[in-house]
Amino acid sequence: MAGVGFKRMTIQILDNKAPQLGENQFVIEGAQGKGATKTAKISGIAASPVKTYGSNIAYYISSTGVGDVKAEFEVIDFPRDVLSKILGHKTENGITRVGADTVAPYCSILLESATTDGTPFYAGFYKGQFSLEAFEFNTLSDKQEELPADSLTFTAIASDTPATDGAYYGTCASKEANTVNAFKAELKMVNAA
């Protein structure tokens, strides 16, 4: 299931507060100086099948649930203040610190794309944490190159909200505003109706 394009990513910090753009909700959509989505690779959405053998044949396949559900992203020019918030980094007087007590907050995320017929397609993760494993410095060269992208990983866990209890992710392909808003409400990105 591949989307056509990667238009936007919305990140909601799950802090039990109403969604407020710029405070606990952030949108990466290619606005100049505010980051742009490049790639998203979602994995672990199915459990690894385990075969049970008997009578000299593969008798049964167990593949209930999900695997290690995660999404790996490349984002160009990710705003540093947003990155610090979603990674749990502490910033004071312009200095960002990461240490033994650094804990990323739980977030939900919504990815926006389209189907091959142009219908808006959404993939959402109900709860998880972001991580930034590494970053690089490279020397300047004499030829023009694309801007480098930040590589982040979102590791999902099961939702503990009653309506989505046990779900890791969901998808929605719809042009209907009510359907899309209901999905966003499940992800705690809008106030439930």
Describe the structure.
This protein is mainly beta and 193 residues long. The protein has helices at residues 80-87, 177-186, and strands spanning 8-13, 25-28, 36-43, 50-54, 57-62, 70-76, 90-92, 95-97, 107-114, 120-131, 149-156, 169-173. The strands form 3 sheets. Strands 1, 2, 3, 6, 9, 10, 11 and 12 form an 8-stranded antiparallel β-sheet that branches. It has a two-stranded antiparallel ribbon with strand order 4-5. It has a two-stranded antiparallel ribbon with strand order 7-8. The two termini are 30 Å apart.
Which short descriptors sum up this protein?
single chain; 193 residues; mainly beta; 8-stranded antiparallel β-sheet
